[in-house]
Amino acid sequence: MSGEDNNDIDFGVLDELIGYRLRKTQLVFFNRFGDACADVGISPGLFGVLVIVKRNPGLTQTAVAMALGNDRSAMVAAVDKLEQMNLVERRPSKSDRRSYALYLTEEGQTRYQSIEERVLEYERELQSVLKPGEQELLLDMLMRLTESGIQS
Amino acid sequence: MSGEDNNDIDFGVLDELIGYRLRKTQLVFFNRFGDACADVGISPGLFGVLVIVKRNPGLTQTAVAMALGNDRSAMVAAVDKLEQMNLVERRPSKSDRRSYALYLTEEGQTRYQSIEERVLEYERELQSVLKPGEQELLLDMLMRLTESGIQS
DNA sequence: TATTGTTATACTCTATAACTATA
DNA sequence: TATAGTTATAGAGTATAACAATA
User: Fold this and answer.
1) Do B116 and A13 touch (CB under 8 A)?
2) What is the pLDDT of residues A81-104, one digit of tens each?
3) Options 1.10.10.10, 3.20.20.450, 3.10.320.10, 3.20.20.100; which CATH number does B10-148 get?
4) What architecture is domain A8-148?
5) Beta-bridge partner residues of A86
6) How far is B103 from chain A (nearest CA, A)?
7) Which nucleotides of C are covered by protein (CB under 7 A)?
8) Are A44 and A30 in contact (CB under 8 A)?
9) What stretches of B2-148 show up as alpha helix (H) in DSSP?
10) pLDDT computed for residue B71 by the predictor
11) CA–C1' distance B29–D23 (Å)?
């Protein structure tokens, strides 16, 4: 997908921009995620919802959206899809009739394992270019860069 | 823009996934880029074209697209916009009447400087959470992760 | 035949605003 | 009044397929 004979191209300041490199690298991870999970219909965004619901059963849609940092309107289609795949179910909240509590279905619990395995497998594959300790350092740097830019 | 009181949320495997962290961090950089350059109408993608054309004057649209790793069909709207802003111009290629050679206009040359300054300024701001030497290390790791995943 | 720029198209991701039913 | 889920909508970003002009 990337360039071919870019050896003779001068990338100027792009070579020093973390923002530019992040975009390219994120695209590689995104594409690999697709290769790994396309047949099960799980995108990176849907996987995020899946993880949050699995680890925090009973959350409302809005709470999941806040956890993932996106708008609650985006949750509707996401949960719709996961419900159609019979991975997640909406249960009416007992305390608040406006909201749902989200849970993995029984099928969701078992299928989650194989999905997570796939994700971890392609991550390990890509991370194989990192030396010991570099993964933790990379995650730490990315976390710091994210926290500093909460603003807005 | 991100979550608020996510202290009590269990992110499970997401905390170890470089792909997930990349996406979040890239979004922060993307948003900051917008804050820094919205008034001049330059997006991260347009800035990439600008840099390549400045450092490699005379390239065709397809060559710029390959350098940046995206499809040549996307270049049409990009160059259209940059041409309307009077930053870039299409000159007919002497050797090949199918293609254009891309150059910064005179106005593009001068305005490029202030745009690059803005970009470098917000990058420095975000990078202030990195310790000495970490920027180079981060860029190196990102580069390695990208090169390993060229495939597809 | 292959390639350049182009158009049409479509799909994903994301955000905003407004609606409804509840609180 | 404020909030949860929803809908409609719109804007990027990106990719594919096909076409005309040219190689």
Assistant:
1) yes
2) 999 999 999 999 999 999 999 999
3) 1.10.10.10
4) Orthogonal Bundle (1.10)
5) none
6) 14
7) 3-8, 12-18, 21-23
8) yes
9) 18-37, 44-55, 61-68, 73-84, 106-127, 134-148
10) 97
11) 42
The SS3 of residue B68 is helix
Nearest by CB to residue A21, choosing from B2, B33, B139, is B139
C1’ C19 / CA B45, Å? 36
**Confidence band of B38 (pLDDT split at 50, 70, 90):** confident
Q: Report the C-alpha gap between B39 and B32 in whole angstroms.
A: 13
* Per-residue confidence (pLDDT) for residue A62, from 0 to 100: 98
- The reported pLDDT for the residue numbered B4 is 41
- pTM of the predicted protein model: 0.93
Find how far residue B81's CA is from the centre of its chain.
Answer: 16
Chain B interface test: which of A4, A5, A17, A120 (most B C-beta within 10 Å): A17
Which backbone phi and psi does A91 adopt, to 5 degrees?
-110, 135
Residue B137 pLDDT > 70: yes
Interface mutation target, options B142, B151, B152, chain A, most CBs of A under 10 Å: B142
Taken as a whole, chain A contains a residue count of 152
Q: Which residues of B are less than 8 Å from A150 in CB distance?
A: 1-2, 28
- Per-residue pLDDT band at B1 (split at 50, 70, 90): very low
Tokens of B40: 């001049």
Average pLDDT value for residue range B114-123: 97
What span, in angstroms and rounded, lies between the C-alpha atoms of B3 and A118?
Answer: 27
Query: What is the model's pLDDT at position A3?
Result: 38
Q: Which residues of chain A have pLDDT under 70?
A: 1-5, 149-152
Tokens 């990195």 locate to: B130
Structure tokens at B101: 């050679």
Mean of per-residue pLDDT scores for chain B: 94
Residue reference for tokens 């802003």: B85
Of B10, B33, B148, the CB nearest to A129: B148
